[in-house]
Structures are given as C-alpha cells and as structure tokens.
Automatic annotation (TrEMBL):
Family according to the record: Belongs to the light-harvesting chlorophyll a/b-binding (LHC) protein family.
Compartments in which it is found: Plastid, Chloroplast thylakoid membrane
Domain of life: Eukaryota
SUBUNIT field: The LHC complex consists of chlorophyll a-b binding proteins.
A GO-annotated cellular component: photosystem I
Name the record gives this protein: Chlorophyll a-b binding protein, chloroplastic
Signal peptide limits: none
Species, as recorded: Zea mays
PANTHER family in alphabetical order: CHLOROPHYLL A/B BINDING PROTEIN
Swiss-Prot/TrEMBL keywords: Chlorophyll, Chloroplast, Chromophore, Photosynthesis, Photosystem I, Photosystem II, Plastid, Thylakoid, Transit peptide
Molecular functions (GO terms): chlorophyll binding
Amino acid sequence: MKHEKNVRDHLPATWRWRCRLLPSLSSVRLGWSIFLLNTDKRVPTLNSRSMHPLSSLLLFRSAAPPSALPLRRRRRSHTPVRASWQELAGVLVFSAIPFTAVKALANSPLGARLRRRLEDRKAAAAAEADALRAASRGARNNSFWYGGDRPRWLGPVPYDYPEYLTGEYPGDYGFDIAGLGRDPVAFANYFNFEILHCRWAMLAALGVVVPELLDLFGLVHFVEPVWWKVGYAKLQGDNLDYLGIPGFRIAGGQGVVVIAICQALLMVGPEYARYCGIEALEPLGIYLPGDINYPGGPLFDPLGLSKDPVAFEDLKVKEIKNGRLAMVAWFGFYIQAAVTGKGPVQNLVEHLSDPLNNNILSSFH
C-alpha cells in the first residue's frame, strides 16, 4: 500500500482521481477485468505481482471515468433503428397481403356465393339473435350483478350514487366521481374503450408472465425473458425467436423501424373493421349476431358461451373485473421494473424466499 501511494504521488493530477478508485492491486485486477469486458481486443493476461503498479493504472488511461466505458460500447454497438428501402418495401407487401386477400375473396365468385348463402339464412339468424338478446335482458334483471340491487363500490356505507348508473352494464358498481357517464352515448363509448383495454391488458399480462416462467423452469430458452428488456435486446441487434423456437422470427429478425411500421399497418385493418361495426364482415358471408363489444358467432364465440344467457351475463362481469385487475397489474409491472430492474416472476420468487427482506419497503432502502 505504501509503494502504491508513492506511485500515485508521481502521477499527473488528471490521473490521481483514478487512483483513488484503486486502493489495492486487487482492485487493479478487477478494473482490468472490467476493461476486458468492454473491449473486443485480446490482450495477454497480466499478473499484479510481476507488473509495475503504474502499468496497471495505465489500463484506465482514458478521457472519461471507467464508468463511462460501457456507455461507449453501447454507442459503438449496432442498433437496428434504420431500415433499407428493401425492408420497407417488404413490410408494405407483407402488410398488404391480408387486405388484398380479403378484397379478392369478397370480389371473387366464392365471395358472391357466400353472400347469397348469408342472405338466405340471415333472417333466421337475426331472429335467433333477437331471442338471445331478450333472454340476456331477462338474465340481467334476475342477476345479482345487475340492476338497482347490485353491489356498490362502498358496500354498506351510505353514499349518493349517480342516478344515471342503473346497473345496465357489467361491472357497474356506481363509481363515477368524475361524472364521465352522464352522457349515455359517451358512457357507451367509454365502456367500449374499457373492455377493449381490459382484453389487451389480460393478453399482455400473459405475455409478461409466461415467458419468464418458461425460462425460469428451463422449459424454453428465450434471448430475453424479461418483458421490459426485450425492446432493449432488439435495440442491441439481437434476433428474437417467437416461443423460443430457433429461426421462428417472422419480424423478430428485422429492425425496430420495420417492426413498428409492420405493426401499425397490420392494426389498420382490424381497427377499421371495428370502426365500421360488426357488419363489416358481411361481404365475406360472415354474420355476427352480437354487438361491437360482444360480437358472438363462430368467429368470436367458437365455444358457444353466449347460448346460455345466465352464464354469459356472469362471464361478462368476470371478464371486466379481471380486465381491471390486469390493468392495475400492469401498473405494478411498470413500478417493479423501474424500482428493481427485474421481472414480476423473479420479484415474486425472491419475496417468497425471504418476505421480511425482499418486499416493497426494502426496495427503497
């Protein structure tokens, strides 16, 4: 230690702060290891006993502190943000395939036959749909979750609940402190937005938890199983395999710009169909007996859950309740990622292994 101090005294002033980071030669070896991890050059192994301390300190002869070395590496690494015209053209062609196929089918002789067959059975299907809607209204009137006697968000606590919330919609607990449901048309739109985001949140929550579980148990190996690190891995140039299957990439081998454009174009069709209403599929000979929130039919209800009105009305309540929980869970996913830098499954495993030391309070120490 005395010999090292003498060496530090003869170093230039711009290097002395670096020496304070290296109180011993063991720290020099650690710094050398960090240097090797942040360079592509191969250098011979150095031994602190056979080398002069000054030569060890020269490893950190840089214009920036050692902590900036990983940042330099990240700047030099390839980030596939740009896209060539060939890739963009391929995305446009790939994204146009569904629209072109639907248009071609609608204008083909097969599409004409499908429309004629739909016209022949549409009246009977519409009558059956009307009967199901009437049965659903009766089921809501007799259900515990609908109407004036439904549960309220404050339970037995006296409260002046809004009169315009009549319990017609599933999941209506009389909660509207902002008065968003005063306009019936706006309230119907808000319910549509809510149920849509509930379904997205439930699907996305599965996409967060399942890959991390599969990777944790060694069933499937992913390039990056933690949900919030996937985008960073893509920015670093990694190829992402769907379901962990090597080579099964679809767009996982493309750049970020290509993936974003492809996603935007592919969402145009479904969003436009949703805007037009459930009648948008009738040119293809598909009749949907429900409404925009619950279209029904073989395409959206292959299990025939809507055929039992009583059970179906209860399923609507369960869906929106679990969807709201999924949206709240996503808020928790964001907070966990920001505070711990880990995935929700890893956080749960660590908490169960040591609940007293691994919890929300210990994260802020």
